[in-house]
Amino acid sequence: MSHMEHKGNSWHENCFTCNRCQQPIGTRSFVLKDANNYCLSCYEKQFALQCVHCKKPITTGGVNYRDQPWHKECFVCIGCKQQLAGQRFTSRDDFAYCLDCFCNLFAKKCAYCTTPISGLGGSKYISFEQRQWHNSCFNCKRCCVSLVGRGFLTCKDDILCPDCGKDF
């Protein structure tokens, strides 16, 4: 009958068992915890954090979001499924979004270029009567001069500087 040795202790092969499932560990990987030996699957079941998304044990590289454990590969944007670990992201109604998806779904759209106005990173924008513009898009429709911080007139959907607006 062969025997097992680990850190100066010896066991009969049949006596070197997992503390949880009582199966012989043999040459399989095991974890020593609180002076007990556990086969890897029992150790994971008993001690590893469970991913809140897939319910499987997290053995390496987990992510903590809102005090809940996730696998990196499970913590993804609800829109495009891109991994969010290590990325800038935001949330709404308990769902996590990458910035692109969040802006496309929820951000105000510029009245001139129609792309989202994120407001993230301190980007400034102009708001007037239910319409918004990026600062760089807030220009006179006729002469293209910037109207940021200046007086302006509206003519239907257009914005005009006072010089161009005096013809209307």
Automatic annotation (TrEMBL):
Keyword field: LIM domain, Metal-binding, Nucleus, Repeat, Zinc, Zinc-finger
Compartments in which it is found: Nucleus
GO terms, molecular function: transcription coregulator activity; zinc ion binding
Gene3D superfamilies on file: Cysteine Rich Protein
Domain spans labelled LIM zinc-binding: 49-108
Protein name per UniProt: LIM zinc-binding domain-containing protein
GO cellular component, one term: Z disc
Listed InterPro entries: Znf_LIM
Record-linked PANTHER family: FOUR AND A HALF LIM DOMAINS PROTEIN, FOUR AND A HALF LIM DOMAINS PROTEIN 2
